[in-house]
Specification:
This protein has 332 residues and is an alpha/beta fold. It is built from 9 helices and 15 strands.
Length: 332
């Protein structure tokens, strides 16, 4: 009996600066026969994320090999008791239509009635968990405090804004890259103020939006955003550094900012970077908080969904150019 064919994406060259479609290739592969303990998963949704740009550099993804990423799929063949046929699973063998997984590298999805499947890759997935950890564990946002979120219209940013509103933040401010995204933040996500960082110096916009200063900054950008936020922080403010979009395409030539790092000392600030993979034990707390709000409609995932596996490279490139509002997902 012939084995099914899967389609995969390989990295075939490393970019210098911004990546392009030419760095990738689509490859057809025959799915191998399953060994004991393995299951074949037909992938349904894939996440594409800014961190993947760093994986394209030397020391990251291997060339001419399948790539890594967060994925949800359904088991269609199994020789693993823990992964029965029909089960929905989360795993990280993405960038392919089908994946062979083992029970130690795939997790059965919890059955949250009334919660869309895609939410497990957006507001309940690594994206939402990053926002949750940044706000609750790293920055320890308190009710009534003023919060600034950069790249606020992205997956982490929109999740952070929605979580912060439900956590009782006093004033929530966001930066984004277009007027349409700014409008989305204030009209739909719950931000009190937002601005297009192209329009004026970020420090000026922060002074206007938060004249009494910031208690908390969730940083997804770095560079000039971080410098401006440090300048706007109140004494004993907290900065949770999650990402650095400003330098993903130029790791060897990072932006000169921030030039005011010593203000961290002068204002007794706390600046802490974090990797969400070191906080996976926070996921049950996220579920306990978010799932009831998702069911009630008080919490709505922000997602941009691209249809078709053939569009996965373009979707990833779109994340890097700001084409998405909320979490970018590919429905395979």
């Amino acid at each position: 009996m012939s084995r099914p064919t899967a389609r995969a994406v390989h990295l075939v060259s490393r970019p210098s600066g911004a990546p392009s479609a030419e760095n990738f290739a689509f490859v057809d592969e025959t799915v191998p026969a399953l060994a004991a303990g393995e299951a074949l998963v037909e992938n349904l949704y894939q996440s594409v994320d800014p961190y993947m740009r760093e994986e394209m550099d030397e020391g990251g993804w291997e060339l001419h090999a399948p790539l890594e990423g967060r994925t949800i799929g359904r088991v269609v063949e199994s020789r693993a008791d823990a992964l029965p046929v029909g089960a929905l699973v989360f795993h990280r063998q993405a960038w392919r239509t089908h994946s062979v997984v083992t029970a130690d590298r795939a997790n059965l999805l919890p059955d949250f009635e009334g919660v869309p499947l895609s939410a497990h890759l957006s507001i309940l997935g690594g994206t939402g968990l990053s926002a949750w950890v940044g706000l609750t564990r790293i920055a320890r946002l308190q009710p009534g405090e003023t919060l600034f979120v950069s790249a606020a219209a992205g997956g982490v940013g929109t999740a952070a804004g929605r979580f912060a509103r439900l956590l009782g933040a006093g004033r929530i401010i966001g930066s984004a890259g277009s007027a349409a995204k700014v409008a989305h933040l204030t009209e739909h996500v719950g931000f009190d103020a937002a601005f297009d960082y192209h329009d004026a110096p970020i420090a000026d916009r922060l002074r206007e939006a938060a004249p009494d200063g910031l208690h908390v900054y969730l940083d997804n950008v770095g560079g000039a955003h971080l410098e401006a936020a440090i300048g706007a922080m109140r004494d004993h403010g907290r900065i949770a550094w999650c990402g650095a979009v400003a330098q993903y395409n130029s790791p060897l030539d990072p932006p000169p900012a921030p030039r005011n790092l010593f203000d961290v000392v002068g204002r007794s600030l706390r600046l802490e970077g974090f990797l969400v993979r070191e906080h996976l034990d926070a996921r049950p707390g996220l579920y306990d908080f978010a799932v009831p709000h998702l069911r009630s409609g008080a919490l709505v995932p922000d997602e941009t969904v691209v249809d078709g596996f053939d569009q996965v490279v373009e979707a990833f490139l779109g994340v890097l150019s700001g084409a998405n509002t909320g979490k970018m997902l590919v429905r395979l």
